[in-house]
Amino acid sequence: MPEITKEEIMGKNPDGLEAYLRKSYDGEAYAIHLSEVDEIIKSSLHIGQKVIVTYDWIYITGPPSGTALKMRIVEE
Question: What is the DSSP letter of 75?
Fold first, then answer.
């Protein structure tokens, strides 16, 4: 996935950001539902990190999505 610049996402609300990402990067990323992931891990996530994710299932869409059971940060 290409690097996303700050200027591309500044000022967008969550719906606007989702629409922009779907238009620009559809099929090049994963949508990860974090409802089962520890709050400490969630609070330390940011764009550009490499992570290892264990899913309970995956739904093949554009982008593929699923619910993460565990997440480990590999690279800050």
Answer: E
